[in-house]
UniProtKB/TrEMBL annotation:
Residues 19-28 have a biased composition (Basic residues). GO terms for molecular function: 4 iron, 4 sulfur cluster binding; metal ion binding; molybdopterin cofactor binding; oxidoreductase activity. Residues 60-166 form the Molybdopterin oxidoreductase domain. SUPFAM superfamilies: ADC-like, Formate dehydrogenase/DMSO reductase, domains 1-3. Residues 325-452 form the Molybdopterin dinucleotide-binding domain. InterPro entries: Asp_de-COase-like_dom_sf, MoPterin_dinucl-bd_dom, Mopterin_OxRdtase, Prok_Mopterin_Oxidored. Keywords: 4Fe-4S, Iron, Iron-sulfur, Metal-binding, Molybdenum, Oxidoreductase, Signal. This is Anaerobic dehydrogenases, typically selenocysteine-containing. Residues 1-28 are annotated as: Disordered. It holds the Pfam family Molybdopterin. Coiled coil: none annotated. Belongs to the prokaryotic molybdopterin-containing oxidoreductase family.
Length: 457
């Protein structure tokens, strides 16, 4: 409809392009276990991985198991489905001998870790940001500590700098503050404005002469870019690409396999040929797609999936019995995933999550508003209160995320964390007793068969 990357339309992101120190050139080569993409054959295109399947993969063991499992600002026990299995895997030292949690807060996963490295909150750390600008003009801004970190909490970036020094490959900066300082002195525009001292005082910089970036896909690729070493034309797709940035071993192999079938060829994407001209197009991410805004996907077709956008029912829904309902979960505006229930003012507003059921459905199963009910799945059951409302469609029971913590502090769960103080006067004002229920106890860690994300229903 002509509403892509234009004023008033759906725009491509325009963000800050920071320059920053990238550490030593001779970095140790990383190794990994093949446990992040789920079980073989279950997911067609796990381009952004399937983190919710990691514990199941570790429990299975066929792809190997880590000697140390470390997580950062993440609550795998609470955030993923099948909480019971998550707990069992973390507790079993035969499956994972040693676990390390990096988190500012004592949550359900931290409670099971062998060691906790207390991180700082966003009000206690240095950083620079490169978020998308709402004006289509890149905005550079930094984060700086507002208050001193509590106790022994440390920014994990500072910890990582220390570890790099001890392991013999210094990064070229010894703290996050130094990293931010060097970035400010290296980044064009920010440097000329006054660098780190300017950013500390003003917090943000943008080029006042810059114009909003629109229609980037229409920009023509310069002829000399097409003549660079390794750049070839794929006749099937019309994509110019540099085969040397892919996994191809030679130009002949790259030409024989073609752009679509050469592993990691998208990394060498240069431009899209259309009517004799070569345009920037829509640069691919993760998959070997062309530079077109694709509606028809050869990649999907090659996996035996519909090439055009098509509704495909969740496999489990096809097997549902007449008396079964679809369980779904959702987020509410005043809470943030699993991370905000320890915020007293937010949780005072939202601390209970009854099961929402449509009046027609409630009537058919004999449930009235306010009744205590059991919601059961293949994993077990939870007890909660029914909220009969037209806000959900018939055939569905909806229980929100955020609630039902059993750790995470007194505001979230009613349970005091180890080493927590009693110096918050607002604890005396906490009037609510309910903490809700957590639906993930009965939601399996089953992936979408196409992209691998959690089904959540």
């Amino acid at each position: 409809t002509g509403n892509i990357d234009n004023p008033g339309g759906r725009c491509r992101p325009a963000g800050a392009k920071w320059k920053y120190p990238k550490g030593p050139k001779n970095k140790p080569k990383a190794k990994k276990l093949n446990i992040i993409n789920g079980f073989k054959g279950q997911i067609a295109l796990p381009n952004h991985h399937a983190s919710h399947q990691v514990f199941n993969m570790i429990k299975d063991g066929s792809a190997g198991r880590p000697e140390v499992y470390m997580w950062y600002c993440y609550s795998p026990v609470y955030a993923n489905g099948d909480c019971k299995t998550n707990i069992e895997v973390l507790k079993d030292e035969k499956l994972i001998p040693y676990t390390v949690c990096v988190n500012p807060f004592y949550d359900e996963a931290a409670a099971l870790a062998d060691i906790i490295l207390p991180d700082v909150t966003y009000l206690e750390k240095w950083d620079w940001e490169d978020m998308v600008s709402p004006t289509q003009v890149p905005e550079f801004y930094i984060r700086q500590p507002l208050v001193k970190a509590l106790g022994e909490s440390r920014d994990f970036c500072d910890v990582a700098c220390d570890l790099a020094e001890r392991m013999g490959f210094p990064l070229g900066f010894k703290s996050k503050e130094e990293f931010v300082r060097k970035s400010c002195e290296m980044t064009p525009g920010v440097k000329e404005a006054g660098g780190f001292e300017y950013m500390k005082k003003h917090g943000v910089w943008h080029d006042p002469k810059a114009k909003p970036k629109y229609y980037s896909y229409k920009k023509e690729v310069k002829a000399d870019h097409l003549k660079k070493d390794g750049v070839i034309l794929d006749e099937v797709t019309g994509v110019y690409w540099n085969w040397k940035k892919s996994k191809a071993k030679s130009a002949d192999e790259a030409k024989e396999k073609g752009y679509e079938h050469t592993k990691k060829s998208y990394k060498g994407y240069v431009g899209q040929k259309i009517d004799g001209k070569v345009y920037k197009g829509f640069k691919p991410d993760k998959v070997n797609k062309s530079g077109y805004f694709e509606i028809y996907s050869n990649i999907m077709k090659g996996k035996g999936l519909p090439a055009l956008p098509t509704y495909v029912a969740i496999p489990g829904h096809k097997e549902m019995k007449n008396d079964e309902l679809v369980l779904t979960t959702y987020k509410v505006p005043v809470q943030i995933h699993s991370r905000s229930s320890n915020c007293k003012w937010l949780t005072e507003i939202y601390h209970d999550n009854p099961a929402r059921i449509n009046p027609k459905t409630a009537s058919s199963i004999g449930v009235k508003d306010g009744d205590m009910i059991k919601v059961r799945s293949e994993l077990g059951e939870i007890k909660t209160r029914a909220k009969v409302t037209g806000q959900v469609v018939p055939g569905v029971v909806a229980i929100s995320h955020h609630c039902g913590h059993w750790e995470y502090g007194r505001y979230a769960s009613g349970k005091k964390a180890p080493f927590a103080g009693d110096n918050d006067p607002d604890l005396k004002l906490k009037w609510w007793k309910k903490n809700g229920v957590h639906p993930n106890w009965i939601i399996p860690n089953k992936p979408d068969p196409i992209n691998g994300q959690m089904r959540w229903m």
